[in-house]
Amino acid sequence: MSDEVPFSLPMLDAQPDDGEPSCSPKVYVSNEEKAIAAAMLELRERAVELRRRLERPGSEEERVRLEAELEALRAKRAELAVRRDEAFRRKMIMLGHLPPDDEISLF
User: Fold this and answer.
1) How far out from the chain centre does Cα 30 lie?
2) Whose CA is closest to 74, among 90, 104, 51?
């Protein structure tokens, strides 16, 4: 037993460059998550446009209509956020990183 070499990790002679990433920069996003993120971005762009129009002076009717449209966009975004979370959980279940969930249908 005294002749055995103790287990140790290998030593690297070269130190990694600071410019090189130590972990993979790639992040896997499913097609479903990508579509939902694109829809959320469209909603955001529309909301920014509506907020700019609200800053300009206008009639009270126009202001009420714009605020109602903004509220509808917020509701759609909240729905998409729930769908995005479900898509993420679905992906993690399919990859085996999370246990199966009865609330999430895979297909």
Assistant:
1) 10
2) 51
Q: Which long-range contacts (CB under 8 A, 24 or more apart) does 53-57 make?
A: none
CA dist., res. 47 & res. 69, Å (int): 9
Among all chains, which residue has been given the structure tokens 């829809």?
39
Residues in the chain: 107
Place of tokens 């090189």: 20
Q: Decide: 45 and 19 in contact? Cβ < 8 Å.
A: no
88, 37 contact by CB (below 8 A): no
Q: What is the mean pLDDT of each run of 10 residues along the chain (107 residues)?
A: 57 56 67 95 97 90 94 97 93 87 74
Q: Which helix (H) or strand (E) holds 41?
A: helix 31-55
Question: What is the rounded CA–CA span in Å between residue 90 and residue 20?
Answer: 32
Please state the φ and ψ torsions of residue 28, each to the nearest 5 degrees. Answer: -85, 120
> What does the alpha-carbon distance between residue 75 and residue 67 come to, in Å, rounded to a whole number?
12
